[in-house]
């Protein structure tokens, strides 16, 4: 009987538990530290054996779960014993690992800090901890087997889920009502924590609304939910405070970026790691046109033409220019990479993104170099300044809605089907009559056009922009959010942006632990749900085709 899966899962769980231990998580969790770590290991084991539970004998799945629990539990105990031995001998390891203090090991072992320093930590003391990890791992394995049994699948298929579906639909609107209620000055929840909690509930409400939209049947029911979700989302900017609106504004700016990149990567299958270049083009073009005094080149150009360094265009006039500049940038990138695929395409596009950033950094007369463009003009409407966080959030919502509408229409069009065929197999697509050059260039152009629009709004929001704002990590963030949300899924892009850009801001108050929590959630999700949080139906079938056929056969 093969135990390779169990060994692999156990090593992954041990690596994650080691990371949690080394950054000092147990000190925050106190007595619940080791049960929580065991629960993390159990979730990983459950996600790992869930698919095997459908296709493999129950005995093999149980053995793999047992092996995973033993490996992760014993290796973790060995790590604790190693650090405990060093502390018992008076070795000071804190200069190297600053979180490894007696209080940390005490929270994990159940001993007192004095007992850890006295060398009382032994394998006998840690045996209950090993047993706990094994039991939780077996619990996760048993749950996976139970959920995959034929009887449970038939029971789930026979259920009438109409009531449950409407409960799911009602959840986001109940949460939005909670957000409004928490905004009442009479509600006292304790200073800053109240604002953070409101933002967290607002993010969960938006995400659960998208999930509810996916759970409803196409037609009248789905239209009702869409209208209610839109109404609730429009209400959000007027119920959140300045900081919360600021966070939601950057979330939906990245939604606009993600929707554009989703066309390139999710629809057409072209891995673009230089997407930030088009974001930068839109931002800097608007910055140059709205604040020419920040650029020596623009000031000289206007002076030579007999003008003054005043704004050349306003925000609304710059929108088609930013979108056009982004589209031209996408075409210029697409032309030299037409024959490249896969990793080679990713490397070239990554280089293009870095070229644009260095170009912005070194062309000081035009872009003001590392000093950036300062005092970029806010959007205005009939003389009213729209630069405050609430108005920027509203503009980002409107922009995201328009981009989502266009992306949906494109996906359902003949061009969208050509992109999908291109992603599946370029040679077969060409053999069926699809013009590869035109199809690829249109994918790059549409994706870059939406990035240019997002870049313009970002510049108006930030007021001051610098080349460092457009590093490779922006492209990685945009790519990660469509992978986490679900490639090719428009609601998934929104949910991915909420998870990757919104939740880290909510967790900022717990310092380095927000990154820990974020990383742990990503690891668990990649193991348990590789297709993304809200995947497209096509993507789900591709990744679970074997599971679907087995379920249909049973």
Summarize the structure in words.
By secondary structure, the protein is an all-alpha fold. Helices cover about 75% and strands about 0% of the residues. The protein has helices at about 5-20, 25-30, 35-50, 50-55, 60-90, 100-110, 115, 125-145, 150-160, 160-180, 190-215, 220-235, 240-265, 275-290, 295-305, 315-335, 340-360, 365, 390-410, 415-425, 425-430, 435-460, 470-485, 490-505, 510-530, 535-545, 545-554; strands at about 380, 385. The protein has a two-stranded antiparallel ribbon with strand order 1-2. A hairpin with a 2-residue loop joins strand 1 (about 380) and strand 2 (about 385).
Mean pLDDT over the full residue set: 79
Helical percentage: over 70%
Q: What is the count of helical runs? A: 27
Give the overall shape.
globular
N to C succession of SSEs: HHHHHHHHHHHHHHHHHHEEHHHHHHHHH
Estimated structural class? mainly alpha
Number of strands: 2
Write out the strand line-up for the largest beta sheet, numbering strands in chain order: 1-2
Biggest sheet: strands, sense, closure?
2 strands, antiparallel
State Rg: 27 Å
Q: State the end-to-end CA separation.
A: 24 Å
